[in-house]
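<instruction>
Derive structure tokens from the sequence
<data>
Labelled lines for chain and fold
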Amino acid sequence: MTKALCCILIDDDTDEHELFGMAIADTTHEVSCRYFHWCEQAIHFLTQRGVTAPDFIFVDLLLAHASGQDCLTNLLKLPALQAAKIYVYSGMQQDESEKYIKSLQVAGFLQKQPSVKLLSEALQALFEKANP
């Protein structure tokens, strides 16, 4: 039996939160997800006493209130998140930004998809690697 997974999405677009939630619901894994519009909100939540680190964190690089790169840098500094898999969640093509993304020292890249089905398939693949 697979364990329940926990994730966080940091994206300032509420539509992305809805799409992401629908895609997670379409995977075969039990996943709970918290959604934040701003990196500061997520960091505040993650640094509260008693909060368990998520298995996955997905960060949009184009945040309105701060750069996604700054957000990733701040998340990577949190000792409690050492085991979390942090992914860039972006609409840009991976090959266009691969060097840049590797420089961020994150677990990987998840491209935003035009449909719930495609995003669900991409998330399913990530969840399978982490929790076969």
User: Anything to note?
Assistant: Residues 19 and 116 are 6 Å apart (CA to CA). The first helix runs from residue 14 to 25. Strands lie at 5-10, 31-36, 56-59, 85-90, 108-111.
